[in-house]
Amino acid sequence: MTEDRMTMLFFEIFTGLPRQGPGDRGSTLRAWSMVPGVGPHTRVLDLGCGTGSHTRVLAQQSAAQFIAIDNHPAYVDELTRVATAHGLADRIDARVGDMRALDLPDSSFDVIWCEGAIYVVGFETGLRAWRRLLAPGGHMMVSEACWTRSDPPRECVEFWAREYPAIRDVPTLRRAIDDCGYETVGHFTLPSSSWWDDYYRPLQPKVTEFRDRHGGEADAEELADSVQREIDMWRRYGEYYGYEYFVLRART
To answer: What is the pLDDT of residues 31-40, one digit of tens each?
Structure first.
């Protein structure tokens, strides 16, 4: 499968979903409530914004100014459309960009928000690379996949070893946060309902329809099988892993 073909098929499955990963409005707002002093002069950088489901929630709950970045132009276009429809276009600047190569000035943001996307660059890599963008006393919110139990079954361990071998438990992530120059303001685990109600339930019919459209195409069937394995793995073993939301303050 060529890279262009893989990208086209991937976005065919995931375009049109309410979210591009596990999450929910309540958890976004819970993390946002841990960030102090948000006002009309607060500058927020939203990395890996997708179609902006959480970006819109944050903008509606504050007077802050947002730059939202994603590498998929169709997602950025959708966020721009939604921001305009909700009267938020003057405070949400949606841009196509790469979170691995951010051409932005040092100390230019009070908050960096990365909901479900830091895995793209790596947890410590993102924390270290993005720190320069925070103003003194700035805050960062990142969410990361983690083990929630110490005894995951072998099938679950083998799945994550293939999909995201960097998965760790919360105490290990807390130590990494400290090593990268941050203190943890607060953290919590995303509710299991957010994986199904807000992500996998709307994703399941998309996978089925995708498989029907691309029957006999080996690369498409392989992709559909991969996404289905992810859904099935969560149904069997979702109690053993989750997403942890961390709100951090950069140490001076």
So the answer is: 999 999 999 9
